[in-house]
Amino acid sequence: MGNVCLRLRAYLEPWLPCWSQEADKPTVIDNPWTGSPHDGPRPPSPEPRGIQGRYFVALFDYQARTAEDLSFREGDKLQVLDSSHEGWWFAKHLEKRGEGTGQQLQGYIPSNYVAEVTSLQAEPWFFGGIKRVDAENQLLYSGNQTGAFLIRESESQKGNFSLSVLHDGVVKHYRIRTLDEGGFFLTQRRTFSTLNEFVSHYTKTSDGLCVKLEKPCLKIQVPAPIGLSYKTVDQWEIDRSSIQLLKRLGSGQFGEVWEGLWNNTTPVAVKTLKPGSMDQNDFLREAQIMKNLRHPKLIQLYAVCTLEDPIYIITELMRHGSLQEYLQNDAGSKIHLEQQVDMAAQVASGMAYLESQNYIHRDLAARNVLVGEHNNYKVADFGLARVFKVDNEDIYESKHEIKLPVKWTAPEAIRANKFSIKSDVWSFGILLYEIITYGKIPYSGMTGTQVIQMLGQNYRLPQPPNCPLQFYKIMLECWNAEPRERPTFETLCWKLEDYFETGSSCSYSDNFDEH
């Protein structure tokens, strides 16, 4: 348990600039392109920055979203000219491009799409601070073959690394140990001065591994840039005419959700809110906080249109919709316990971040978790319960005019309007019930008033059919009558990630990195 904080920190490092590692010193390379200062947008006049003038390599493809952006392909070399914008750097392309192509040679790039050319982060086999369960999910992707591998930062031992390898449909993990004088090894009979030497050796021979290393694991999870563009990071009231509503995805008591397109380039989700569904000033205050909350398991708030009705809330698009509908549509055909535990662990990870920021969700439920590609789950609508004006028979209105979704709300929040991260933990327990029952409504057949009465008699949802006792015990911990006795999301995340000590999808070598 003492290592959980280190594990959470290691997971967040790639996403939080204040925790990012200092890049290695660059090797100077020839610049194959010298261009006119009028090719593309001109950068601002920045203050001196540590990485300015350094050379980077693209980790992913990026298609320009605005006229000021620079398109590039995975593997392209770039020189950063200005790093003064949060999440977006002004860069110059170092690849020769065909004349007359009309392609810009400089512009803004998302900073989390590139790595310094001489850094460990630039290696195709290095996956940074991803968790063990994420490593397993990515290696088990159908595009990978036996011998696919990745190296990641150890979750439990800062500065150490782990090797994860796919062998005949099973993921095996090895701890890469470090020498006091520098260097790396799996066994002391053979040591390496760098991880590159380590990889080079084990791609030639298995030498004690389960299999010889072949191709690096495919990087199927592309990070979301911070904001829609470098301009919207700070100026996030955008022109309504820049949004096209393409396809209605759903509707509810607050309005509708649409698949949209921003600036004719970028798919987004758009919530169109019914007039009067919220106080505009309350929403803007809350949205300002929400926009600064960034984590891989939280839906990113991109921008808003609030100058006229209906208010638009623009967020990243998750193509498979809500977790509630996703579970109901599957009903057990493809989703089984292993996937259900993974869903819960991902949600707990996002909530652990909110917990670390002292932020309360207030409406955690399967309907407010969204599903993306490659089994990616993100928490949505955090904070909006504070500002919506709700009218529903299953909503309890307290003396303080706060209206609550009773079946997901902790007793102390119902009785005394006492919201805390611990009331979110209670709601998470209900979310676990939704996950394990494939989206069934909790307290089936009961009204909101009946649920309040039953909770007052210490009633708890019974163990659902086909729900393992281990999973149900976690639910019961979340429903402790004493809020202080409920687990933290940090603890819940750890329990769910380590739920399977052994399983068909992964096994552990003698060198296994426990976390």
TrEMBL record:
Domain SH2 residues, every copy: 125-217
Species classification: Eukaryota, Metazoa, Chordata, Craniata, Vertebrata
UniProt xrefs under InterPro entries: Kinase-like_dom_sf, Non-receptor_tyrosine_kinases, Prot_kinase_dom, Protein_kinase_ATP_BS, Ser-Thr/Tyr_kinase_cat_dom, SH2, SH2_dom_sf, SH3-like_dom_sf
Record-linked SMART domains: SH2 (SM00252), SH3 (SM00326), TyrKc (SM00219)
SUPFAM superfamilies, per database record: Protein kinase-like (PK-like), SH2 domain, SH3-domain
Keyword hit for Nucleus: yes
PANTHER family noted in UniProt: TYROSINE-PROTEIN KINASE
Keyword Nucleus among UniProt keywords: yes
Reactions this protein catalyses: L-tyrosyl-[protein] + ATP = O-phospho-L-tyrosyl-[protein] + ADP + H(+)
Annotated family: Belongs to the protein kinase superfamily. Tyr protein kinase family.
Function: Non-receptor tyrosine-protein kinase that negatively regulates cell proliferation. Positively regulates PTEN protein stability through phosphorylation of PTEN on 'Tyr-336', which in turn prevents its ubiquitination and degradation, possibly by reducing its binding to NEDD4. May function as a tumor suppressor.
The protein's name: Tyrosine-protein kinase
Span of domain SH3: 51-119
UniProt KW keywords: ATP-binding, Cytoplasm, Kinase, Nucleotide-binding, Nucleus, Phosphoprotein, SH2 domain, SH3 domain, Transferase, Tyrosine-protein kinase
GO molecular function: ATP binding; non-membrane spanning protein tyrosine kinase activity
Subcellular location: Cytoplasm; Nucleus
Region named Disordered: 29-48
EC number(s) reported in the record: 2.7.10.2
Binding site for ATP: K271
PROSITE patterns associated with the record: PROTEIN_KINASE_ATP (PS00107), PROTEIN_KINASE_DOM (PS50011), PROTEIN_KINASE_TYR (PS00109), SH2 (PS50001), SH3 (PS50002)
Predominant location: cytoplasm
Subunit structure of this chain's protein: Interacts (via the SH3-domain) with PTEN. Interacts with RB1.
Listed GO CC annotations: cytoplasm; nucleus
Domain named Protein kinase: residues: 243-500
